[in-house]
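Lecture 7 notes: from sequence to structure.
We start with the chain below.
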Amino acid sequence: MIRILIVDDHTSFRESLAFMLDRVEDLSIAAQSGSIESAREAIGTTPVDLVLLDLDLAGERGLDLIQELRLRHPSAITIVLTGNAGARSRAMAVAAGAVGVLHKSTSIQEIVTTLRRAFAGEPLISSREAAELMRKGGLHQQIEVDGHKALQQLSQREQDVLRALAAGLDNQGIAERLFISPETVRSHIGRIYRKLGVDSRLQAVLFAVRHNFLTEEDLA
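Predicted structure tokens for the same chain:
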């Protein structure tokens, strides 16, 4: 069962969506929130697997909640469901930690399919698509000294693994490319996450893209 928190300040939309999703046999609406504060309370007291979040909450920034969830509740997957589908908004959401962005006009069936894919760990957006989104959103050239220092901490083998992640390879594929075991791959990925301060493959790749570590040829 996939436990879902819906965060949207439009009550009629939120309740209608909750009603439709709660009728799907493998989905369960764990909670509904109309503000960031109530969302914090909900996720602090109710087990949640996935958060459907609107970026445009009255007087609040949904981006702040994405970043908070990534840091404090990394097991909760965040998908943005918004009426604002501008490139910059989508880019900022993905950069903050969302695994995907859907427009509110998306059909219920497509939303359900996306929720299932995200819960199963399937990528909703490729490394190349994410990099292009960030470029269009004006985030591609964001350079930070600390980011370069973090990337310089990666060993040569960790750099090889990061490039393999950007190419879209899974652990077995990386192991075969680099002639190492899948267990060693997992260890390298864990160290990459810690050194870069990220918690997913996509976030690691986006970090490297934002700091010009990866080229277009590296991306899947």
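Points to note: The mean pLDDT is 88. The chain has eleven helices and seven strands.
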